């Protein structure tokens, strides 16, 4: 079992040796000379040998004390270096950063710009793992997670990065073949690509909102997917109609590859959050990544 008093005593011993006296060591440590003396006595009792020779004029190591201090001095240096390195983590973007990323966000927005982030931070090693769920962030060894949807009941800190509009879209080829629904209620007569909620296992409900009004449309479909990439692929192929995030498909809406079927229902949105374990002492690498994600979506 680790004895913190032993480490404290070794620190006091180092201060005495470096300063050359109990008085100067006491000043450096913020203790009284008698407090320094008691700490050395406790250390000597703990290791079972006399470490210091004390005279009225000087203090020096015994032979046993010299051997002891020769062994522990490098360890003290290592502890100090580790403390400095840990403190630097709050200011320097370096080390390994492990990210649990939403597949849609990672594929369409984050992935194409990761080179920029790495170019800015040459001392950083980045791991981006795409998953449909947050899981146990700390137990999985993750530093930060990026997820769509309202925060679950969790001890994690959640920072909203944006709220993207939910749009109901189809490819021109689908509209040419099956016609364009004029109102949301017409969707009951169309092929709708449903998306599975990873938390419930059921398809997401189709909502439409404008000016404080909300309507729910019950869609029926033989196609259920749980991957945004598959949703987009089936959309472009003209298989059906889907509700997707405007974030990531703005160019396709502009150039006509996808059609926003109900632009007069513009108010349904879905949030994107960054999750991390603690608000205190946030490492610089996590802060830099979250700021970069804000830049990406902004």
- In CATH terms, what is the architecture of the largest domain? 3-Layer(aba) Sandwich
Q: Could you tell me the radius of gyration in angstroms?
A: 31 Å
Q: What is the approximate shape?
A: rod-shaped
CATH level 4 superfamily of the largest domain: Periplasmic binding protein-like II
Termini, distance in Å? 51 Å
CATH topology-level name of the largest domain: D-Maltodextrin-Binding Protein, domain 2
Count the DSSP helices. 10
* Top-tier CATH class of the largest domain: Alpha Beta
- The total count of strands amounts to 13
Structural class: alpha/beta
Strand content: 15-25%
Major β-sheet, in short? Answer: 7 strands, mixed
Poorly predicted runs: none
Element order, helices and strands?
A: HHHEEHEHHEEEHEEEEHEHEEH
Mean pLDDT: 86
Q: How much helical structure, as a percent, in the residues?
A: 25-40%
Count of discrete domains: 3
